[in-house]
Records
---
Amino acid sequence: MSGKHDQDRLIAYILNELPAEDRARVEAHLKECPRCRTRFEQLSQIGTRLNADAGTQTDPGNEEAFLVEVNQRIDAENERRPVFGLLRRLAVGGALVMLLLLLLRHPAPDAPCRPRAPVAQQRPDHKISRLAKHTPAVYPDFSGLLERGWPLAGKAPALSPSPMPAFPATPKLTEGVSLVFPKIKL
Amino acid sequence: MTREITDPDAQIILEIQHGSRDAFNQLVRRHQAAVRRLAQRLIDDEEEARDVAQEVFVLAWRELPRWRFKAKFFTWLYQTTWNLSRGVRRKAYRHQYREKPPQPDSAPSGNRREEIITAERHVAVRAAVAALPERQRQVVILRVYEKLSVAQTADVMKCKEGTVKALLFQALKKLSGLLQTENDYER
Ligand SMILES: [Zn+2]
C-alpha cells in the first residue's frame, strides 16, 4: 500500500494473508492515512468474525468408509448402466417407428381436428391448474364420442359413411382452457 | 491466449484414463476432505452433504475418461460440488436463517453464557453470508472459508482475478452493514 490506498492489500491484511514484511507496510500506511484507517475499521471486524467462524468447522479429514461408499455407488451404477443403455436405445427406436407410422397414417389435412374434452373433466383434481379449475367448461360434451372408442380403439374410422358427428362449432376459448389434440394410439 | 495448465492431478488422471481404479481411489483420498468440507458448509444436513460429496466423485469417475486437461481437476471439483449443493443449499440456508442457538431455561452464567453468545454470533455471521448475492457469497466461501487464493477462486468462478477482488470487497462491505444492523438491534 506504499503511498496509495490499496484496497486489495488491505483486505489481504484483514484476512491474515500477507507476509510479515507486507503487514508492516500496511500498518505504517494505516497510521498516516485516515481514509484507509476508516475502511480498515469498517472491514476488520467482519474479517475477524468470518475468520473465527471459518475456524469452527472441523476438517472432515480422510475417511476410508467414504471411499468405500463412493466405489459401491460406482459399481451399482456400472451394473445398472448397460440395462439402461439398452432400454434407452429401445425406447428411442420405438419412438422413431411410432413417429413414422403416425406420419404415414396421418389423416388428410381437411379432416377435422377435434378438441379433447375440457381439462377439468379428464384429469384428477389435484392436477388441474388453479385457473382451469375455476374456469367454467365451455366445450360441448364429447363424452359420447369418446365412448364410441375412436380414436382409441386402434383403427381409424372409414371416412364414409362417417361414424363421427359433424364437427361442432369452434368453442369460444376462455382463458385457462386449452385445446389439446387427441392422443392417437397405433 | 491459451494458458498452460499444470495440474498436480494430471498424472493420476492419465492412469485413470487407462482404467486404473486404484488411481481413482488415490484421487478420492487426495480430494475428499475438501469436497466434503465444502458440501458441509453449503448444506446443513450432514447426511445430505455426504451424499452430494459422493455424487461429485461418481460424476468424476464418469467424466475423467473424457478429461481434456483444459482446467485443473480441483477447479472442476469445486464447481461441481457448488452446483450440486445449490438446490439443497437454498433449503438448508432458509432453515439456518430460522435456526437459533439453544436457549436455556434459566439465565446462564459465566462460560456457558460466553458460549451461547459466541454460538449466536456464528449463526448471525452465517445467516449474513447466506443473505449475500450468489457471486459474493461464493467468493466469501471460497476465499475466506476455503482459503483458496485469488487465482484459484477466479478459476473456480470462471472470472478474472480483479472480479474476485472486487466481489470480495463488495461482500465484506455488505456483510459489515448487515452485521452492524444486527449489533444495533442487540443494543
Ligand atoms: Zn490510504
Note: Chain B touches chain A at residues 21, 25, 28-29, 32-33, 36-37, 40-41, 50, 53-55, 57-58, 61, 121-122, 125-126, 129, 140, 143-145, 147, 165, 168-169, 172-173, 175-176, 179 (CB under 8 Å).
---
Amino acid sequence: MSLVLQGVASGVVTGCVYALVALSLVIVYKATDVVNFAGGELVMIGAYLGLLLLLWFQLPYIAMFALVPVAVFAVGALFDRITLRKVGGRALAKHVDLVSFVVATIGLSYLLKGAVRVVPFTEEVRRLPPLFSGPPVFIGDVVLQRQDLAIIAVTTMIMLALWLFFERTLLGKALRATSQNARAAALVGVPVSAMRMAVWGLASAIAGIAGVLLAPKLLMTPDMGAVVMLAFAAAIIGGFSSLPGCVVGGIALGVIQNLVGIFISPQAIAVTPFFVIMLVLLFRPEGLFGESLALKKV
Amino acid sequence: MLEVRGIHAAYGAVRALEDVSLSVGAGEIVCLLGANGAGKTTTLNCISGIVPVTQGRILFEGEEVTSERVDWLVARGIVQVPEGREIFPGLSTQDNLELGAWTRRRHNGRAAGLERVYELFPRLKERAAQRAGTLSGGEQQMLMIGRALMAQPRLLMFDEPSLGLSPILVQQVFRIIRRLHEEGMTILLVEQNARMALEVSARGYILENGEVKLHGEAGSLATDPQVREAYLGA
Ligand SMILES: Nc1ncnc2c1ncn2[C@@H]1O[C@H](COP(=O)(O)OP(=O)(O)OP(=O)(O)O)[C@@H](O)[C@H]1O
Ligand SMILES: [Mg+2]
C-alpha cells in the first residue's frame, strides 16, 4: 500500500513537469494552430541555460531561476519573429500552410540540439543542482525530495498566474481573442503578429522553467527533450485545447506511469504514454476536457 | 472625411478592385452596393488596412492613411463591423465588448462606453456574462456593432449588417444605423439589401466587377432604371 502511495506521490511530481510542457504546447497550438515539435528542445535549453548560469557565471539560484524564462522567452519570440512570420507571409492571409510551420518547428528542434551539442561544456553528462537541497520530507509513509516539493509549488504558482493572466487581464483576453478569431482581433486593432510573438515567448518560457525543474531529477543530455512525448500525451488527455486539461492530463499520466511500473512491469512504463494516446484518441478524441468538436467549429 | 482615390487591389493574380474612388463626408451615410463578388468587402478591407492597396491613395481627415497598419487605423477612428459572425466565441459578451476598446485601453471613459453600448443594446447587457459563441445570430450582430462602438469610431463601416437576419432584426439594425447617424456618426454602409440601404443613405456607389459603375444621390439611384432592374428587383 505504501508503495502505491509513494508511486502516486512521485507520479504527481513528474506529472507536474509534463503538465507544464503540455501547457506550453497547447498555448502555442491554440493561438497559432501550430504543433510545436521543438517544445522538448525548449525544455532542454532551459535546463542547459540554467546550468550555464549556475556553473559558468556563478549566479545564485534565484537569479538563474529568473533569467532562464526570460532567455527562453526570447528564443521562442525570435523564432516566431524571424522564421514563422517569414514562412507565413502576411499573418492575415486566409490559407496559411500549417505544414510549413510545423516543419519549421522541427527545424528549430534540430537547431537547438545542435547548438547545445557544439558547446564543449555539454559533452560530460551533468546534473543541475536542485532548487532546495536537504533531507527528504516525510508525509506519512511517503517520502518526497525537497526538489519535488519545489516542483509542485512552482507548477502551482505558474498555473495560478496563467489562469489570472488569461481570465483577468485585458492582454490575456486579447491573446485568447487572437487565438479564437485572428481576423476579428485584427479588426478591433489588436496587433495580431505581436500577439503571436508574445504567445511563442510565453509558451517557450514555461517550457524553459520546466527544464530547470526537471533537470535535477534526470541526467542532462541534449536529447532530454524527448520528454515532449509525455507532454503530448498529457495534452491529448486534456483535449489539446484546455489548460486545466493539461494539468489533469499531466498529473494523471505521471501517476499512471508509476502505477504501471508497480503493477505491470517497469519495462511497460516507456510505452504507457503511447498507449494512453491511442486509448484517448479511440474512445474520446476530444479529450477529457476538450470542447465537443461541433462546438469548436463556431 | 474619407477620400478613396483610384485604388487598385488584387489577390494574387485575381484583380479585385480597379480604380475605385469614393468619398464620405463628415456625418454622412454613404452606401456601397453591388452583386456578390463585386469587391465591396475588399474595398472596406483596403480602407481598414487589411488588404494591401497596390495603386491609389486613401485619405482620412485630410491625412494620407494608405497602407497604414490596422491597429493604427483603428486607433485613428476607422472601425469596421465585418461581414459574418466575427466574434470571439469563447469569451463572454462583456469581454468581447471590452476588447473593442483595445486601442483605447490607456484612455479613460471605457466604462462610459460600455454603459452606452448597453443602453443601445439592452439585450447585450442581459447576456453580459454569456459566452459569445452561444448568442443568437442577431445578438452576435449586435455584439459586433457594440464592439465597434467601443473603439469610439469616427468613421464606422458596416459590411452587410443585415445578412442572415430575420426581417424584424433587419429593421432593428437599420434603426440603430439611423440613430448613430442622427448622433453625428459618419457611416459607410455595404449592403445587399439595396432598398433599405438607399433609404437611410444620402449617397450611394454601385460597384461592379471591381469598378465603380454608378454613383450619386440615393434618391436618384433608387429611381435609376438600371439600378432598379439589377438591385431593386423592379
Ligand atoms: N482572400 C481572397 N483570396 C482570393 N480572392 C478573393 C479573396 N477575397 C475575395 N476575393 C475575390 O475578390 C473579388 C471581390 O470579393 P469581395 O469579397 O470584395 O466581394 P463582395 O462584393 O464583398 O461580395 P459579397 O457580396 O459576396 O460579400 C471576388 O472575385 C472574390 O472571389
Ligand atoms: Mg462581401
Note: Residues B 40-41, 83, 159 surround magnesium ion (ligand 2) (CB under 6 Å).
